[in-house]
Design goal:
The structure holds two protein chains of two kinds. By secondary structure, chain A is an alpha+beta fold. Helices cover 25% and strands 33% of the residues of chain A. In chain A, helix 2 packs antiparallel against helix 3 and helix 2 packs parallel to helix 4. Classes of the chains: A alpha+beta, B mainly alpha. At the A-B interface, strand 6, helix 2 and helix 4 of A face helix 8 and helix 9 of B.
Amino acid sequence: MIANMSMPGSTDSGLSLRGLSRRLGHQTLLDQLSLEVPAGEILALLGPSGCGKSTVLRLIAGLDPVSAGEVWLGGRNVTALPPGQRQVAMVFQSYALYPHLTVERNLSLGMELRGETRQTIARELQRVLTLLKLDALRLRRPAQLSGGQRQRVALARALLRRPALFLLDEPMSNLDAQLRDDLRAELRDLLGQTGAPVIYVTHDQQEAMGLADRIAVLREGRLQQLGTSRELYESPVNRFVAGFLGSPTINLIRDGEDTQLGLRPERVQLQPASTALPNGWKARPGRVVHWEWLGDRVISHVACGPDSILKVVSKELCTDDDVQVRWRASDELRFNRRTGERLSSN
Amino acid sequence: MARLALLIWSIGPMLWQLYTSLRPTDALTGGASGERAWTLEHYLQLLQGDPPFLIYLLNSAVVGASSTVLTLLLAVPCAYALSRIGRTASLTLSLLVAGAAAFPAVLLFLALLEVARDWHLANNLLALSLPYAGLSLPLAILLLQASFRDIPLELEEAAVMEGMDLWQRLRWVLLPLMTPAMASASLLIFIFCWNEYPIALTWLSRSDLLTLAPAIARIGGSSVYTIPYGAFAAATVIGSAPLILLMLLFQRQIVSGLTQGAIKG
């Protein structure tokens, strides 16, 4: 089942993928992907490595040939156009800056070769150098830049073209965690200003949730679910999506022969074993076997039965050994234990 | 100690030649006179000869340069293609090229001689680049192919996204990053051409068109009664000086790690 395929009416300045597929031999890298990204929206493609998210990017860019389907951009079918004529800019995972050229030349080379006038080049160059605070670095070579600075140059090179679409391939994966958090908001603002649709590939759910307007979760070349972070988090269509979003990951416990319960660690509570259960709540007895104190919260590992460990996020340490893990019945997600599909009981 | 031994081992013969070239003939052949004397007579003799020895240097430089350019012109597209096609095809073709590189070129002389005669290529310096480029190509292709492989594919794809065509990508992105490989390939080709003897000997007969190797050989055979050690040594020194100079010039290019740290931090 593929949910949330409701599309906003096809926009003239947006991106539209129609049944996009890519096969290589017997392997299906991408299967019938259809989605729309209106202008100004940041869409994150989220999934584990090998799920086809980079394939999507390469197909949109025109770097790989499509096996079936069409790419529409700004109201025209660009499927047959070479990459350079699609008005698409891409920021690569490695940033792919030209190592032998200075920052300035890295930015201007493409424009020069496209035959832009000297004035245009100078003006556009100044615009992005200012926008990305690269003025002081214009004569450095990529090897003399930090990871964050390289990312800014790569972004500048993409912005320089005033493209109709931005593609970003894991742009944060080469940066350390601290810098990543700092840059997220900055990147979001910057991309928002351009007004063009943005496709952002990542395997990091926090990055996707923090940056994107909507998230498309991919698995083995198939779209699992498309929606806002909140929709995906609160009503995932299957176990895979539920497990991919949220940290720590969702708890899965057996409930009868065919059903599995999904319990978000931050939506369950720890109570002393003898506490009375309010109406509409469910509970399981357990024992705290391990806990991680993280300052602002505690993650307790609670053994409920022989082989099920539940993670519980709470503000305070629970000092009792024997506890009760309880949750609101309306907060639980039910899955078919075999197929992983979400059961629509609540 | 070991380094010193190695140094003597490799530089010793060159110094011996230099020494020989600066000693009067008498001292070299065991005559008693002038034990301590130094002289430039062998050099002067070479430079004032007919034709002057420098013309051979010039000839060799022309042949070397044209062969190097021709080889690179052919090798760059080959190497690029080999580095971009599928693995199996690339491996098969590379093995074939390596086989060609290992083929003993001596076996080609008779055939080459016929080519020179039938196509009227004898006594033509530029025509000599044809066999030279042919013989250098395999090695150049293998060298450059490895270098193309070392350039991350994303770098070329970034250029593709910017709308650069194949020629622009080669000219502005790929080849500049391959300067070290290009330099070492050029140097190897040039040295091969500079030192090549048998083909030059058979393709060139006019004395003003000779390249260095056959010209030096002629000095050795110029007299039946004496072996002109001094002139021979002087010719060797003059002949190797440009190569040593080139080595020193190119050394920085070869060693410089131009792409270092440029892709990932």
